[in-house]
Amino acid sequence: MINIYVSNLSFNIQDDDLRGFFEEYGAVQNARVITDRDSGRSRGFGFVEMADRAAGEKAITELNGAVADGRAINVNEAKPREEREQRSGGSRPSYAGKSRW
Predict the structure, then answer these.
(1) pTM above 0.85?
(2) pLDDT on residue 3
């Protein structure tokens, strides 16, 4: 399994379009364009998961720099997601019950 990061996508590209770019190289397990949670608009990047690592590496090599909907896309192997520290309500000190002056 290989997870592929695709950036500089046109805002017109949808999940099915992204899948179509990669299916030429092998079976695509999942293809997802990341969208803004508030507006639903594309954020200009997405991820593709392919079962066959060799096919995924070939797709990366051949699609990196290719033009899709008028834009040259960047295609790389996705880096593992880093664990993020949990935030608890902000980074400012609490002054609850204390005088600030």
Answers:
(1) no
(2) 97
